[in-house]
Design brief:
By secondary structure, the protein is an alpha/beta fold. Helices cover 44% and strands 13% of the residues. It is elongated.
Amino acid sequence: MRLKRSIVLGWLDDPPESSLCPLLPSPSLWIIFCYSTCYLATCLYCSFAYSHDPTSFFFDPSKGYQRVYSLKREKQADAFINAAKRSTSQPSPPSSPSICLGIAIIARANEQYIPHTIGSLLEALTDNQRQSIHLTVFFAQTDPSQHPIYNEPWLKNVANEILQYKVSDEKMARLHSLEENHQFWNKSMFDNEYLLKNAPILGQNGS
């Protein structure tokens, strides 16, 4: 007997297995693909999220050493000092300060860091927080008028006290000699001691 041919979905007789089956990955390949995708995604995230962390494997010096926060604080400090220049009021002496800040400054050949230092210390403080701080600025050089900010009025609007040397002629000559010979290490020890003895601590003068 002669058999008749049948057509099923365009195929003669019985249709073969789907031609797509050989192209579909096996379960093991799916696992490798998913793992690789997750691994690469994790690496990309960590390289972005931890590029500024020096302790991280993904630390990137080109990004980690960018002065992002420092530049922000410098702008805020500049805004604070500019506001102090326009102000006519001076800080009232704290009745019972809990913090005594003493800053010894000298004139530098290039940039002066003291405005950024003071501005970043005092910027964004509340009135109560500012009242808990006694800020003393000490011109640690024999001729304080040589410092660029010595005659700037904004300094009196931010500092509670401004110090300069009040010593005997003999000590002043010694200090001048240390300055002339650039013996700043020895001079800094005297300056720190002088600042501690003459700056008020918790509302009481040091002795």
